[in-house]
Design goal:
The protein has 503 residues and is α+β, with helices and mostly antiparallel strands. The protein is built from 12 helices and 22 strands. Helix 2 packs antiparallel against helix 5, helix 5 packs antiparallel against helix 9 and helix 9 runs antiparallel to helix 11.
Length: 503
C-alpha cells in the first residue's frame, strides 16, 4: 500500500465514507495567522498609536522635561511612569511591537513569494480557451488568411504596443501568441517589505546604539567630552560621554536684527560656530549654523543654544599717545592681538558687557550690554605688561578711562556683539542612513507598485474548415483593470487593422 506524507497536515477519514478532510497542524495555523495581513495592519496601527503617545507625552531626553514633569498631577506621573510613556521608544513593548511587525513582514514575504515565482519560472503561454472567453473584455474575431501571416501580424502589433516579450506555442490544434510586460511589478511587494524592514532596523539601531549630548565651548577652548541630562522621572543626573575626537571652537558669531539690541533669540537672525576636529587622521574644519548641521564619523552637530553672557567677537579702538602723537585705530579679534607703530602689543584678553568694579558674576545675564568694556594687556617693546580697561564713548570721559597705560590712552569706538559660548548638540545616529535609504526605497517602490502593472495578453488562433480562423483576444492585469480594458480595445483595433493590411 502506497503512503504519502503531507507536510503539516493529517488526513481524517469521516465515518460516513466521504473523502478524508485535510486538517492543518497547530504550527501551520500559527504561521498562517502570524503572516496574515490582518495581523500586520493591527500591529502597524498599535505601533502608530505608541508613536503618537511619544509625540503627545514629552520624552525624558527632551529639553524642558523637568518643567513638564513638575507640571503634571501625581496621578499622571504615576500612570505615565508605570506605563513607560516618558521613554516609550526604549520601552520593552515598543521594541516587541517592532519585532512582531518585522516578523510578520518576513513571514508574509516567505508565504507569498512561492505563489509569485511561477510568473517568472513558468509563464502561462497557453491557457484554456474557456478561461480566455471568461476574461473581461475578451473578443472573438473571425479572420481569413494564412496562419503564419496572422501570427506575424499579431506578434508585430503586440510589440508595437510595448509588449517586447512575445512567444508562439501550439496546443490542442490551436496556436497561441502570448505577450506580457511589467512582470517585475509582481515582485514590488518584496521591495516594499525590504524598505519597511530597513526603516524599522534603522530606528532600532538609533534607539539602542545612538546617543546625544551637548558641547558648550568658548572660542579657543577644546574638549572631547559632551554632557547630557538624564531624567529618571523625578531624578536628574548629569551624564558625561566621551567623543572619539577633540573639538576646538575657533570662532562664534551671532547675527542680530538690530545691532543696538540684546543677544536675545527674538533679536537674532542666525548663530554660527566654526571649529576644528582633531583625531588620529589629523585636523578637520567644521562649521555649524542654525539650519546647517555638520556631519563627521557618524556624529551630527547642531546649533542648540548659547550662554547668555555678553562678549565681543572683535573690538575697534583708538590708541592715543599720552605725550603727543597721532592716534591709531586698530581692530582686534577675540583672543587676538594687534601691534602699534612703535611696537607696542595690544592683547585682547577679555570683554565685560556690564563692567563694575570687582569680580564678574558668571551667572549674570549681561546680554543687554549696559556698560561694555574691553580688558587689554598692553606690552611695550621694552617694558612691563600692564592691564588697561577700555570703555566706549558713553563713559569715555571718566577718570579711569583717561588713565594712560604704558604711554597710551584708549577708547573703544565699536564692537561686534556675541555670546560667551555656543552650545552644540552632538547626536550619534547609527541608523540614520539606513532609515533614509529605507524611505527612499519605499518611495520608489510605491511608485513602481501603483504607477505600473503586470499586463498579459493572449491571442488564440483556431483553424476552421475552409480558409477562416477564429481569433480570441483576451488579457488580464494586476493593477488598474479599467485602464487595461481600454488599452485592450485599442489593441484589438490595431490587430484587426494589421491583419487587413497584411492580407
Amino acid at each position: 500500500m502506497d503512503t504519502s506524507i503531507i507536510k503539516n497536515t493529517e488526513l481524517i477519514a469521516p465515518v460516513d465514507g466521504t473523502k478524508p478532510q485535510k486538517i492543518e497542524s497547530l504550527l501551520s495555523q500559527l504561521l498562517k495567522f502570524a503572516c496574515s495581513v490582518k495581523v500586520g495592519v493591527t500591529l502597524l496601527v498599535i505601533l502608530g498609536g505608541a508613536c503618537m503617545i511619544g509625540m503627545l507625552v514629552m520624552q525624558q531626553n527632551v529639553d524642558g522635561f523637568a518643567n513638564y514633569f513638575a507640571a503634571l498631577t501625581p496621578a499622571q506621573r504615576l500612570v505615565y511612569g508605570r506605563l513607560g510613556f516618558f521613554d516609550i521608544y526604549h520601552s520593552w513593548y515598543f521594541n516587541a511591537l517592532l519585532a512582531a511587525l518585522s516578523l510578520n513582514i518576513i513571514l508574509s514575504t516567505i508565504d507569498r513569494l512561492p505563489k509569485i515565482w511561477p510568473y517568472f519560472s513558468r509563464p502561462s503561454n497557453t491557457v484554456p480557451v474557456r478561461w480566455l472567453r471568461d476574461q473581461s473584455g475578451s473578443v472573438s474575431i473571425e479572420v481569413k488568411g494564412d496562419v503564419d501571416k496572422l501570427v506575424s501580424s499579431v506578434s508585430r502589433t503586440l510589440k508595437e504596443n510595448g509588449f517586447r516579450k512575445t512567444s508562439v506555442d501550439e496546443k490542442n490544434g490551436r496556436t497561441f501568441v502570448f505577450a506580457e510586460k511589467g512582470t517585475w511589478n509582481r515582485l514590488m511587494f518584496v521591495a516594499v517589505h525590504i524598505a519597511l524592514l530597513m526603516i524599522f532596523v534603522g530606528g532600532f539601531m538609533t534607539a539602542q546604539l545612538g546617543h546625544t549630548g551637548n558641547l558648550g565651548l568658548s572660542p579657543g577652548q577644546s574638549s572631547d567630552l559632551m554632557t547630557d541630562t538624564a531624567f529618571q522621572l523625578d531624578k536628574v543626573q548629569e551624564v558625561t560621554k566621551k567623543l572619539p575626537f577633540e573639538v576646538t571652537f575657533t570662532d562664534i558669531q551671532q547675527r542680530l536684527i538690530r545691532d543696538d539690541g540684546s543677544l536675545s533669540p527674538a533679536n537674532t537672525i542666525d548663530w554660527m560656530t566654526w571649529f576644528t576636529i582633531k583625531d588620529e587622521t589629523g585636523e578637520h574644519p567644521g562649521f555649524v549654523q542654525m539650519n546647517r548641521p555638520f556631519d563627521y564619523r557618524g556624529y551630527r552637530f547642531f546649533q542648540a543654544s548659547f550662554v547668555n553672557v555678553g562678549k565681543a567677537r572683535n573690538i575697534t579702538l583708538v590708541a592715543t599717545p599720552a605725550y603727543g602723537g597721532e592716534p591709531q585705530t586698530v581692530k582686534i579679534d577675540r583672543n587676538g592681538s594687534a601691534e602699534l607703530d612703535d611696537g607696542t602689543k595690544l592683547i585682547f584678553r577679555d570683554f565685560r558687557a556690564n563692567f563694575t568694579m570687582g569680580p564678574e558674576d558668571p551667572n549674570e545675564n549681561s546680554s543687554n550690554y549696559q556698560n561694555p568694556a574691553a580688558i587689554l594687556e598692553v606690552l611695550p617693546r621694552e617694558g612691563v605688561m600692564q592691564q588697561a580697561t577700555v570703555f566706549g564713548p558713553q563713559v569715555g570721559d571718566i577718570p579711569v578711562a583717561k588713565k594712560a597705560v604704558n604711554g597710551y590712552t584708549f577708547k573703544m569706538t565699536s564692537f561686534e556683539k556675541v555670546a560667551d559660548a555656543h552650545v552644540l548638540s552632538v547626536q550619534r545616529d547609527p541608523g540614520s542612513n539606513v532609515v533614509y535609504g529605507g524611505f527612499a526605497l519605499l518611495s520608489l517602490t510605491l511608485v513602481g507598485v501603483f504607477a505600473f502593472s503586470h499586463k498579459r495578453v493572449w491571442a488564440s488562433i483556431d483553424t476552421r474548415p475552409g480558409d477562416s480562423h477564429e481569433l480570441i483576444l483576451a488579457g488580464n492585469t494586476n493593477r488598474n483593470p479599467n485602464g487595461f480594458l481600454e488599452n485592450l480595445k485599442k489593441l484589438e483595433r490595431s490587430i484587426v487593422d494589421s491583419i487587413k493590411e497584411k492580407n
